[in-house]
Design goal:
Elements (H helix, E strand, L loop, with lengths): L1 H13 L2 E2 L3 E6 L2 E9 L5 H12 L11 H7 L5 E8 L2 E10 L6 E9 L8 H15 L4 E7 L4 H8 L3 E11 L14 E10 L4 E6 L2 H14 L2 E5 L14 E7 L4 E8 L4 H10 L8 E7 L4 H11 L3 E6 L7 E6 L14 H15 L16
Parallel strand pairs: 6-7, 10-11, 13-14
Antiparallel strand pairs: 1-2, 2-3, 3-4, 4-5, 5-6, 7-9, 8-9, 12-13, 14-16, 15-16
Amino acid sequence: MLVTKIVMIINFEKSNCSLKNKLYHYRHGHLHVFMFREFVTGDEAWIIRCIKDEYSSTYFKNDFYDIEWLSKNALGNRYRSFLAETEGEIAGMIVLTLFIDGENYIEPASLIIRKEYRGYRLADALVNYVFSIAEGFNPNCLLVHAVTFHKITQSICEARGMIPTGFRLGTFLTKSIINSYELRECEKYSEGILVKAVNKKDAGIIYLPSEISSFGKKIYDRLGVNYEIRNCVGAEDCCISDKTQLVTKYDDLQKNVLVTIRKVGTDLADKIKEVIDSFEKNEPWTMQVTLSTSTPDIFYAYSELKKLGLFFSGLKPLCSDIEQMYMQWTGDVKLNMDQYVLTSSFDEIRKDIESFYLGRTRGVNNDKDEGQID
């Protein structure tokens, strides 16, 4: 038995090892063993400690500071929390958000490793463990929002087959963030969006304005799914109703609002303008709008929203029965996207989206609207 232990330690000196639910790491003459497991009652204080270790009191998910809320929700129908434990302490955490708002995707989020346990490749191993669990739920896809003040999450997710598809821009007020990473010249920081196909292998017919088509083709090719892009339709294909149906979610702390368009109506521009007009003057509000690309209505919606200064900011592929895209409103906020810390593949997408951002004041084409009915 003693010989076995010595052999194991010698091997770990040469190469650290990650098994399904454990990570072995030999460092400074000591073998560290990290076990990955689900949250259990009594872990609430450890989750809060992990969050405070990195963000102090500034983490945007305020509920995660509430012991009672964690007791009820950390392992419930919406969230599944997983922890890395070593020698009686919790070294790190990650949370799966399940099937949001009736859509069929899972979002791994809240990957936090306590500072004293960094350098063990713990984030890498914990993500491996949790991704295999998430894929076991057999969702359409996995979707991740990765911060842009470091590229650790981006790199780990890309190594597991996730594809950058766009950005949620201006999510966080920089002045409200306390963390251990350098914050550059950005009034508001953004999140990069990554997607990995799991169960949905056919995106069907996707309607995209012609100026977005090449971007869409690039993304869907990289996702490795079947699809057909159309960027021109006949009058018989359009069915714009009178009334727009939308859902809004305001974050008053971060000055950010998410809008999902359920149905496009002729009053779309008026409805979005009402949201914009609700923002306090001289405050750095930003807005992300999610639209379906599975109907030709997107051509009318895209044209109308461009007139209000919105611009294309990425795709939300495979997440439900319909395909979707994002448009963004940033008002007077200067994004300074070149200040983001990105992987090379994400930087490519950044340049694509930045071109739409810099051209946002041009409005619709003078001679022909995108997707004009011929």
